[in-house]
Design brief:
heterodimer, A: mainly beta, nine-stranded parallel β-sheet, eight-stranded parallel β-sheet, 3 helices, 36% strand, globular, B: alpha+beta, five-stranded antiparallel β-sheet, three-stranded antiparallel β-sheet, 9 helices, 14 strands
């Protein structure tokens, strides 16, 4: 049976979803209650399966909130088949609502990055995933996301990332961007992350890139710390060529030095609880207690609350990059024609 | 019993026999406990109350109480008690008033707004929100770090047995997916701890530059299943056929000897 005939058979059997005219878009389910795959790893390992995928397919893995995922995954499959893109997302109705424990969640107790984008030319994306690293007694090298590849774009959007501590030595960055073809991080919330090991020294950066294009748009970041005896921390440390817009960062603290924003990115319409937000329309020294519904440990809700300085203080990014107009709650800023807020949440919607 | 999941056939980033996943008994107990405590079907033993909350007697509350760091209990329209479950220490807070939390950092909550948003999430179709208990105006929920150790799971399974009449011995297998058992090879093995589980699936890393570790192989350990196919009890052809289910977890005897069969790549 030829590959095309096999795929038509699989479509008839309901194992593949029909896509745009003439194409088959294989979307597979991931979870532990009668799904296609029970772990992200097992789904990813099949990305080069020519029975399931063809050249130029857009492979999509949809996670379900059947149980907590406990794994670290390097997403670098699909290059042999010639996929156009690989997306790991969460099925609608299974997504978080911007707060912890409300949707499909990945935690990792391993020493490897939670998500690592490997070296091939595909566009890779992780979307709508809550990730909790608070239970990882990690050694050096633990990171949430590493995007290190050439030729393909990396995308992380609508994710909820929290809880990464006790790194214990080494320079560790929560999100490390080294993708030469560009990385987009938007409409995501990051909180309660850092270095709790008091014996550590060194710089930690929550988001760092190495000079390649990185667009950080409508991200909310709160309570990132380095308790190391001579530690320092930056919320975002971006090199020239990166862009930070509508980014809200509060409470970045360290023993020696800390900054919500650092580096030489192009910045505008950001907000910080210190003096480091820069560029047109940016707000500095905002009062953290005035911004969010809850900063209570274990019950964080970083949606904006009435009276937040960030309401209507952002800049309209239209629909570029694709999906940037959708806030953390899935509401469409562009369709509603609202004045954009700073951060992941659009208060008016 | 525990399980190793092997790659069948080489791929661009895996070698034939690579250990893709390692599920120990603790992980298997944990996933089934979650299924039972948060069962979503219409026959769920403890149905949601008309107000969307779960009853306090729900086995889901036993699960949350055992596995989570904090309990949050609303004591008034604008007041809340936070309890650190491990030692019973409490902090009483008032809406929008800053206080120093258990982590030593200043924090605050708009209690009415927080609860209203959570109750709205609970009302979504097919949505679970945060499992919430208690009653209108006296809601209870959980948060913080989670603990899924064997000791905690013992407590959870005791509650499951008492309230649902189920035993963890009824669930010996990892709940593999429809395609899992066609694409990959699940082998039974004796139990192992979490440290060994991580080692079994660890990548092979070149960390000569510690700031820029490079993955040499996605997996450092593999099982040459082809050399032991007679012990597995299935033909190579059937194992390699990705259109049929091959499941030897309850047939292969004796189970895989990891000491003999797991190879570490050089």
């Amino acid at each position: 049976m030829t590959v095309s005939a096999r795929r038509r058979k699989m479509l008839e059997m309901g194992l593949l979803s029909p896509g745009a005219a003439g194409s088959l878009l294989p979307t597979t389910s991931i979870g532990t209650t009668d799904r296609d795959y029970s772990t992200i790893t097992l789904w990813e390992a099949d990305l080069d399966d020519t029975d399931r995928y063809s050249e130029n397919d857009d492979a999509v893995g949809e996670m379900y909130n059947d149980s907590v995922f406990d794994e670290s995954v390097t997403i670098n499959g699909g290059g042999t088949v010639g996929l156009n893109s690989v997306t790991l997302t969460v099925a609608e109705g299974e997504r978080h609502d911007g707060t912890a424990g409300t949707g499909a969640i990945v935690r990792s107790s391993s020493n490897s990055p939670l998500f690592s984008f490997g070296a091939n030319a595909l566009t890779k994306a992780v979307r709508w995933i809550e990730s909790d690293l608070s239970s990882a007694e990690a050694l050096s090298g633990q990171r949430y996301l590493v995007a290190r590849h050439s030729g393909g774009v990396s995308i992380c959007d609508h994710c909820l990332m929290h809880g990464a501590s006790s790194f214990q030595s080494a320079k560790v960055n929560y999100i490390r961007i080294r993708a030469s073809s560009g990385t987009t991080l938007n409409n995501s919330i990051i909180y309660d992350t850092g270095e709790a090991f008091t014996g550590d020294a060194g710089e930690k950066n929550v988001i760092e890139n190495d000079g390649n294009v990185a667009d950080i748009f409508n991200v909310t970041m709160h309570n990132c710390y380095n308790d190391g005896s001579s530690g320092s921390i930056n919320g975002v440390k971006l090199a020239a060529g990166a862009n930070a817009r509508n980014v809200l960062i509060t409470d970045v603290t360290a023993v020696t030095s800390s900054a919500c924003f650092s580096g030489s990115a192009t910045e505008d319409h950001n907000a910080s609880s210190d003096a480091t937000a820069s560029g047109t329309g940016s707000l500095t020294n905002i009062v953290t207690a005035d911004q969010y519904v809850s900063t209570v440990g274990g019950s964080e809700d970083l949606h904006l609350k009435p009276g937040s300085d960030c309401i209507d203080a952002g800049t309209d990014l239209g629909t570029t990059p694709s999906g940037v107009e959708i806030d953390i709650d899935g509401n469409d800023r562009d369709a509603a024609a609202v004045t954009w807020d700073i951060g992941a949440h659009e208060f008016e919607l | 019993m525990s399980e190793l999941v092997l790659k069948v056939g080489a791929g661009a980033n895996y070698e034939d026999g690579d250990i893709l996943c390692a599920f120990n008994r603790r992980m298997i107990r944990c996933v089934h406990a979650q299924h039972l405590c948060f069962e979503r079907g219409p026959d769920r033993r403890f149905a949601r109350l008309n107000n969307g909350l779960l009853p306090d007697t729900d086995v889901a509350r036993d699960f949350m109480e055992a596995t989570h760091e904090f309990r949050f209990a609303r004591t008034g329209s604008d007041t809340l008690t936070i309890t650190r479950i491990s030692d019973g220490q409490e902090i009483n807070i008032t809406s929008n008033q800053s206080f120093i939390g258990f982590n030593g950092r200043a924090q605050a909550m708009d209690v009415q707004e927080f609860v209203a948003r959570r109750r709205e999430s609970l009302a979504r179709p097919n949505a679970q929100g945060i499992p919430m208990f208690g009653s209108d105006g006296r809601e209870v929920w959980y948060g913080g770090k989670q603990d899924y150790s064997d000791a905690v799971l013992d407590t959870v399974w005791t509650a499951i047995t008492n309230k649902l009449g189920r035993q963890d011995s009824e669930f010996p297998l990892w709940p593999a997916g429809r395609q899992d058992l066609k694409s990959h090879l699940f082998l039974p093995t004796d139990d192992f701890d979490d440290i060994e589980a991580q080692a079994l699936i660890a990548p092979q890393i070149d960390d000569s530059d510690p700031d820029n570790p490079v993955t040499v192989h996605k997996r450092a350990r593999r099982v040459d299943w082809r050399a032991i196919v007679d012990d597995i009890g299935e033909s190579r052809g059937r194992i390699e056929d990705r259109t049929i289910v091959v499941d030897v977890r309850e047939k292969m005897s004796p189970a895989l000897d990891r000491g003999l069969s797991v190879d570490r790549k050089r």
